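input
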Amino acid sequence: MANYTTADIKALREKTAAGMMDVKKALDEADGDLAKAEDILRVKGLKGVTKREGRTASNGLVIAEAGDGVGTLVEVLCETDFVAKGERFGELAQQVLDQAVATKAADAQDLLSSTLPDGQTVQELVDAANATIGEKIEIKRVARIEAPHVVAYLHKTSPDLPAQIGVLFGSEGGDDAIGRDVAMHIAAFAPSVLTRDEIDPATVEHERKVAEETAKEEGKPEAALPKIIEGRVNGFFKEAVLLEQAFAKDAKKSVQKVLDEAGATARGFARFRVGA
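output
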């Protein structure tokens, strides 16, 4: 008879986020000793790290911190939503975010190669969690925004999951309310850039050609083509450019207009959606 209870299985699953069968096998091998079973899961997990490298990690969470003119946003991925909403995974994400803030990391590679206070690198921390949890875990993206005022906003797309969309918005002037309103707008409308100057000219030219070909296919008069093409290219800008988008709370105004009325100037933003 197994020397452990259903409560032991639940506790070990919650602590390690390992699968049900893996937990049971580990407890059997450890004769019910929870600490030994956790070590067994970790050792077996380490053996499988290389095998997991080819797997797809498309679940996970975003986590952020903002204050004193700096914001940091991190995306941490795993394979299943079960792991994503687990306490162990959340603790790992917080530890990774704390390190990103402490080291002023601006990209994932810098963060992974940085050394934690205990002497291990973030990559080693992730590998150890990978082993214990039994899934591929990946620090996908890191963003850092510096501005006189930075707001962080996290959005849950499902009440059962941690935040799946994260935004940083940096501005000068205005107040917390306008900063949060724009951050929420960014979460909902997913702009690509702050201003149209940031869009590759080749991309704009491609949009112009598509607009021209579409107008001709529709049989529009030759004389009207320039105006039609320009209108459609401007429509592209209004979708991609934050400051030109119609504001979420008042579609009659652009984001630029709303910021102007609040006495604020946008300085930058970052937006992550898990797995996107």
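quick obs: Strands lie at 59-67, 70-78, 138-146, 149-155, 165-173, 246-247, 250-254, 264-273.
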